[in-house]
Amino acid sequence: MKSSNDYTTRLIKYKRILIQLKSLGLEKVFSSNLGDAIGITPSLVRKDLSRMNLNQGNRKGGYNINDMIESLNNILGTSELQDVVIIGCGNLGKALIKHEAFYKEGINITAGFDINPREAEINGIPIYSMEVLSNYVTQHEIRVAVLCVPAGAASHTRDLLLDCGIQGVLNFTPVELKSTDNQRIQNVNICLEIENLFFLISEKSQIMQGV
Asked: N or C: which end of the chain has fewer CB within 10 A?
């Protein structure tokens, strides 16, 4: 499972880099360019591209960026904007709604939901009461939600999203939520990641000092 997740993550990173290169007016890219950009070997890049049936690249000519983006869109299912909703419009939820880079990455935040909405809209995105969430999800065929509610409401809200038909949840709460057969959970614990960084820095320092 981890290998599959790693492969998918690399494909998403490739696409992000390719879009950036295309915006600079470039038409070709080499495996070494992609490898350097995400910190992997060119051989692993070529292996990934081979799995995508993109074998037209070579060491001299490189890969066509437009062709690669099209193939990645087909594989990742992101040839069109992907609609998501934000659940919990406090400071974090509001910041995510205002994060304009989402749209450039093919992610379209269509609405925000909160138990007690303080604003009718944020950055032009409508903010609704949780009471209308189920109808909204059904009418707009929403499959993915970003969870930004307080820790005490995390589990209950996850269950509510499942009942509404939400198949994927990006969980920004400090509560570790588990996936089910009908709903995939991706936990993003910012504090845990920062603690892990401090550990890695400390570990490296001890090795260099011969401790």
From this structure: N
3-state SS of the chain is CHHHHHHHHHHHHHHHHHHHHHHCCCCEECHHHHHHHHCCCHHHHHHHHHHCCCCCCCCCCCEEHHHHHHHHHHHHCCCCCEEEEEECCCHHHHHHHCCCHHHHCCEEEEEEEECCCCCCEECCEEEEEHHHHHHHHHHHCCCEEEECCCHHHHHHHHHHHHHHCCCEEEECCCCCCCCCCCCEEEECCHHHHHHHHHHHHHHHHHHHCCC
Nearest to 68, CA basis, from 29, 36, 24, 10: 29
d(CA 20, CA 14) in angstroms, rounded, equals 10
Chain-centre distance for alpha carbon 128: 23
With cut-offs at 50, 70 and 90, classify the pLDDT of residue 1.
Answer: very low
Residue 86: name the closest of 102, 120, 109 by CA. 109
pLDDT the model gives residue 211 = 56
Find how far residue 104's CA is from the centre of its chain: 12
Is residue 116 a contact partner of residue 27, using CB atoms and an 8 Å limit? no
Supply the pTM of this predicted model.
0.71
Question: Would you state the torsion angle of the CA atoms of residues 195, 198, 199, 203, taken in this order, to the nearest 10 degrees?
Answer: 180
Token pair for 202:
């400390």
